[in-house]
Every structure is written in structure tokens, then in C-alpha cells.
Amino acid sequence: MTRLLALALVVLGTAAGAQAITGVRFAEPTGRYGHHPMGPSVANHAALVLALSDSTERWVRLPHSRVFEDNAARVLDVTGDGLPEVLVVESDLALGARLSVYGAEGLVAASPFIGQRNRWMAVVGAGDLDDDGRIEIAVVDRPHLRRVLQVWRVEGAALVLGAELAGVTNHRFGDPAIRGGLRNCGSGVELVVARGDWSGLLAVRLADGRLVARNLAGGATADGFSRALGCADQPSNS
Length: 238
Hints:
The chain is mostly beta strands and about 240 residues long. About 5% of the residues lie in helices and about 45% in strands. The longest helix is centred in the last third of the chain and has 8 residues, at about 220-230.
């Protein structure tokens, strides 16, 4: 089980086998990292608990050198096999954050760690962004520093970077909420994010392997994001 990279798995009940993931929760809050980009109310955790379709649970415990550093673990089909996986940000105490995908059997794929302690990423969402039948995962790499929107795909046991767009963010340091997400207002999937300086909103499409942004009317506020995600907005002329 080399793909687990030394993760200790504790299985409660019968073996997961072909069981589907039906839910997930964080467990075992820990202060061993000491980095809290989402503020003190959002704890880091040492474990994930996967609820399976046979009513059993599988625990995924990280080694002491890592934590789950996210405000949610998302149950989504990111491999396109028809079964849901868990999408989450985990961080290494020395190497910073990475994007990880877990299945009922353990780690499915992961991006490289950023490479520096206290460096984080914030998930935008996952879906078929360019209507090619494959699932892409969108994340903002270092939303307070680098501010680069990235699109990743599962390729075997790895996440492979497909496209980047600079000058984008979806999180203010200390905010427990990650802003924006995916929408489809009738003409295809778009990513709703903020400009890097929070001066406005952007709708971003993946087309021909490139991320293309257009301005949206409305401010980069909680209400502005909500309206944009609900398609209650109009493109600006700027």
C-alpha cells in the first residue's frame, strides 16, 4: 500500500472493499501545526472519518508531521468513475499545503506540497470545467500571497496541473469562510472568484487548456459572491 505514504488506516467494521463513501467528518483536532489561515475557530485535524455505504466507518489518520488544514472535506466524484471521493487540503509541518483526494481504500492522488511551512491553498470546487467529460479541480494557491488560480486533474496516482491564472483569490486571512465556487448560468461551468486585490469579482472559464477571466458586476463581498453564484449578476463593462 505504498500510495498511502505511511498513513495509518484504522478500519471499523467490515473492510471497505467496493463500498461507496456516503459522508465524511474531521476528527482529532490538533494544535501541532500552529498555522490557522481561517482563524482560531477552524481547527486543524489529524484524522478523517469516512462513512461507507455498508454503514461502517473508515478512519484515515495522518502521521504526526501532517494535518488536515481545511474548513470542509468535500465528498465529490473527482476521478469520474461514478463513485465519490473526498477532496481536502492537508499540510505538512515543513512543506506546507497540498491538495489530496481520498477514496474508501485510502489516498487516491495528491498534488505536490507547496514546499514551505505556513503556505496554504483554498479549494474553489470540482467539476467538468471544459465540457470534455473529465473532472477538474480548481484551487487558489496561496490566496493571501501568490494568488494563483490552478486547475488540477487526477492522472493515475497523481494530481497533474493543467492551467494557471495569476491575480486571483478566494480567501481573506482569518476568515473562516472560503468564498466563491462553481456555477452554470446556462452557458457552461464558470469559477466565481475575486480579483487578487479584492476590487471585484471574476467569472473564469477553462477553454482550450487556458483559464480565461471576465469581470462581473458587484463587489467582492459575501453578498456579491452569493448573487454571482446564483447567477443574479450581469457582466461589467470594465
